[in-house]
Amino acid sequence: METSTHPGDELELSIDLRLAPGESAATRAAEIAREQTVELDLALVPEPVRAAAAGRVVAVAETGPHRAHARLAFPAAAAGAELPQLLNLLFGNISMQRGVRLTAVRWPEALLAAFPGPACGVDGLRARCGVTVRRPLLLATLKPLGLGASELAQLAGRLARGGIDLVKDDHSLADQPWAPFAERVARCQEAVAAANRHGRSCLYVPNLTGPIDRLGERVEMLTSLGVRAALIAPLLVGLDTVRSLAARSGLALLAHPSLSGALLGATHGFAPALLWGELFRLAGADGVIYPHAGNRFRFTRRECLDVAAALRRPLGAFAPAFPVLGGGMDAARIRRLRRLYGPDTIFLAGASLLGHPAPEEGAAALRHEIEREPSPPGRLSGSR
Amino acid sequence: METSTHPGDELELSIDLRLAPGESAATRAAEIAREQTVELDLALVPEPVRAAAAGRVVAVAETGPHRAHARLAFPAAAAGAELPQLLNLLFGNISMQRGVRLTAVRWPEALLAAFPGPACGVDGLRARCGVTVRRPLLLATLKPLGLGASELAQLAGRLARGGIDLVKDDHSLADQPWAPFAERVARCQEAVAAANRHGRSCLYVPNLTGPIDRLGERVEMLTSLGVRAALIAPLLVGLDTVRSLAARSGLALLAHPSLSGALLGATHGFAPALLWGELFRLAGADGVIYPHAGNRFRFTRRECLDVAAALRRPLGAFAPAFPVLGGGMDAARIRRLRRLYGPDTIFLAGASLLGHPAPEEGAAALRHEIEREPSPPGRLSGSR
Q1: What's the burial of B314, exposed, middle or buried (CB within 10 Å: 0-12/13-18/19+)?
Q2: How far does the CA of residue A113 sit from the closest CA of chain B (Å)?
Q3: Closest-CA residue in chain B for A84?
Q4: Dihedral, CA of residue B70, residue B75, residue B80 and residue B83, to nearest 10
Q5: pLDDT of res. B327
Q6: Sheet of A67-75, strands arranged across
Q7: Nearest residue of A to residue B297 by CA position?
Q8: Which of A247, B85, B209, B367 is most buried, by CB atoms within 10 Å?
Q9: pLDDT digits (tens, 9 = 90+) for A42-63
Q10: What is d(CA B104, CA B89) in angstroms, rounded to the nearest whole number?
């Protein structure tokens, strides 16, 4: 592998490439470095501009037939400390090519420092749920789309009384006629507050993913109701909107992966740990929802564990964030997965809970399960 | 193909599926219809909710080995007249599966009416460029990243004097130290205005793709400078931000495809005509930049022509929008492509212009070319 040195004020990208027959890995890597920065034949770029702003190839190696791995360095200044431009730098024009998969980024500290990251993080979200003992948290979803606000609120109250730590809106609940936003959040918050007046400490997490020019008024509405957390789908509103909400709203934010799976192709796009783990956390998500392996979605166990590791590992001055594991979670699966993921995890109990004839009993059984087990070892191994 | 009827207040989605060996197309289609709406086993959904809110399969047919085509219907009310939720409905959770490609949507008129679409459209943007004769428009880009504001402004002035109709910032120009936003837009606008005082009618199009909480002040700054158009990358700021800007900013908007290519997989994601043609236009883009086939990107000629058709076809009450064709455009290529795309097209001249020793002469040659040729027939055929 050819290598050259690089100064510390650069982002270093690790990229897996699929090459056309006869294509040179070195040429392809150099084209990508140029495409993502100066976007011109280097012969047309004055030397001082090239030195300051052009991306460059740090190392490139063929890894198999028509496959290569490249490390590219981009000047941190090219990102301009703005998240939309950072995304553009990472995967702007090359999104329109094929066979370019961004697997990791080495971040310069100065760039990380431009983003506050999670406002609450693991400890802050634990505090809002009143769970200081180090066990996983339980999250349940209010659905289906089509229920009325009072039915959703009734369900919220039952789940809260049963001992669920966080009760969220389904990500499909927006401002539809069946349960308009204002009515729904007021009723659900009141139902959860009523349970909390009887000894529970549940956090209601309404879906804030709405029109960009109504987010301000919706945040105000939530705040006035005493709501302290919200669900937001970064790809539906733009990742930078999450950053802005994390910085200003006062709400803990759970990020939903809607639409984002399209960016996670097996040979083109982002590695899940980079998008869901690092970029969603950099934008300010206190927890990131994603499906654990082995259900109707398509991610491997290794990829899912890598996301969790990325959410919690030391990165700039960012607080660690929760992995929030969805996809067919019932008591047995949660019991297995907590060994794998450790206590700083949120489990999203789905249909198993809503299918229970008495949701509060299903909730209580899960709560019993999550409290009963001794704090497991933190090692990321063991059976699924 | 099995078919059932459907009422007019539904979105009808056309989807190409790749199936696992032994997987039933009908089962897969039904799972997708459920996943994207009620997201629960239908046995758990009360009958009135199912009837009102659940997606359903209209028709499904196997189209080859492990391939199928499905038509699904979703209640329009599920979108709640909000663009983030519309995106979620179209490709939220299924983004995390594989082998689901959304190729077309039949839109209910009532849903389209909730979105204003392009504020200027083809005619409005022509008027802002002062080009009422029905010829294609010429667009050039200020780059590379790393040039100073005065150098970019000098280039803008030369391109405007040469007769380029629109001069835009490169999409990588944000607020970097080399050419900070405020300084750059003021200088470039002044340089273009100076050319316009000498008989030109060029429109400067700065890159507005910036932090979500600074867009308001940047729009004000542009307006106060007399800027009347801007570049915005919908996937970098969120598609709904484009809608909001189209409704309120007073600026004509050119949409840039940065990052969006990741959503356009060959077997998973959106067809380009749906994302770039219909959704970007629905959000309010007056022109959509994308690369024509046959260069360093990966789209077919058919796909590229379909995008242009989608941007211009009757759709709700939307004004038609311009296809803005990039990717290695020089005079010869523009001459060929204008026969294919017709006059309501913008050609983005790239490196051929910036590599010219005297950019104003290169610009003048292109202007001569675009004015010289008689208005071509509108048919979408002929050589590349």
Answers
A1: exposed
A2: 16
A3: B236
A4: 20
A5: 85
A6: A56-64, A67-75, A10-18, A100-106, A269-270
A7: A97
A8: B209
A9: 999 999 999 999 999 999 999 9
A10: 14
Alpha-carbon distances of A51 from A22, A46, A221, B145, B154, rounded to whole Å: 30, 9, 50, 11, 21
Q: What tokens were used for A72?
A: 């590219």
Report the residue of A36, A173, A236, A274 to disrupt the B interface, i.e. the one with the largest count of B CBs within 10 Å. Answer: A236
Choice among A360-364, B4-8, B346-350 with the minimum mean pLDDT? B4-8
* Chain A hits for B264, Cβ within 8 Å: 96
C-beta atoms surrounding A105 within 10 Å: 21
**Which residue matches tokens 């008591």?**
A331
Q: How many inter-chain contacts (A to B, CB under 8 Å) are there?
A: 296
- Mean pLDDT for B23-30 is 96
What's the CA gap between A349 and A333, in Å, rounded? Answer: 10
Q: With residue B90 as reference, give the H or E element that holds it.
A: helix B83-91
Q: How far apart are CA A304 and CA A302, in angstroms?
A: 5
Round to whole Å and give the CA distance between B362 and B351: 11
Which stretches of chain A are DSSP H helices?
Answer: 25-35, 47-53, 83-91, 109-112, 121-129, 149-162, 181-197, 215-225, 234-237, 239-248, 272, 280-283, 301-312, 331-341, 351-354, 359-372
Disruptive mutation site among A34, A101, A145, A356 for chain B (greatest number of B CBs within 10 Å): A145
| Degrees to nearest 5, angle at CA A29 with A24 and A31 | 95
Greatest pairwise CA separation for chain B in angstroms: 72
Q: B294 in the Ramachandran plot: left (φ > 0), alpha (ψ -120 to 50) or beta? A: left
- Which of chain A's residues have a Cβ under 8 Å away from the Cβ of B85? 172, 174-176, 209-210, 236
B289 neighbors B348 (Cβ within 8 angstroms): yes
CA B122 to centroid of chain Cα atoms: 13
Q: How many CB atoms within 10 Å of residue B67? A: 15
What is the residue whose two structure tokens read 């839109």?
A: B107
Q: Say whether B111 sits in a helix, a strand or coil.
A: helix
Mapping DSSP to helix (H, G, I), strand (E, B) and coil, where does residue A333 land?
A: helix
Query: Rounded to whole angstroms, how far apart are CA atoms B145 and B165?
Result: 22
Q: Looking at residue B264, what DSSP letter applies? A: B
Query: Bigger pLDDT: B372 or B78?
Result: B78
Q: What share of chain B is helix, strand, coil (3-state, %, to 5)?
A: 45, 20, 35
Task: In whole angstroms, give the CA distance from residue A76 to residue A108.
Answer: 7
**Rounded-to-integer distance, Cα B132 and Cα A179, Å:** 49
Interhelix angle A149-162/A359-372, nearest 10 degrees: 30
The pLDDT tens digits of the residues spanning A307-316 come to: 999 999 999 9
**Which stretches of chain B are assigned E, i.e. beta strand?**
10-18, 56-64, 67-75, 100-106, 137-142, 166-169, 203-205, 229-232, 252-255, 269-270, 287-291, 322-329, 346-349
Whether residue B77 contacts residue A177, with contact meaning beta carbons closer than 8 Å, is answered with yes
Report the alpha-carbon distance of residue B204 to residue A144 in Å, rounded.
48
User: Are A253 and A286 a contacting pair, CB within 8 Å?
Assistant: yes
Give B370→chain A minimum CA distance, Å.
24
Distance from CA of B134 to the nearest CA of A (A): 31
Residue B126 vs residues A16, B201, B278, B343: alpha-carbon distances, Å:
43, 11, 21, 11
Concatenating the DSSP letter of every residue in B183-251 gives: HHHHHHHHHHHHHHHTT---EEE-B----GGGHHHHHHHHHHHT--EEEE-HHHH-HHHHHHHHHHS--
The pairing of beta strand B10-18 with beta strand B67-75: antiparallel
Q: What is the pLDDT of residues A73-95, one digit of tens each?
A: 999 999 999 999 999 999 999 99
Q: Please give the pLDDT value at position B377.
A: 53
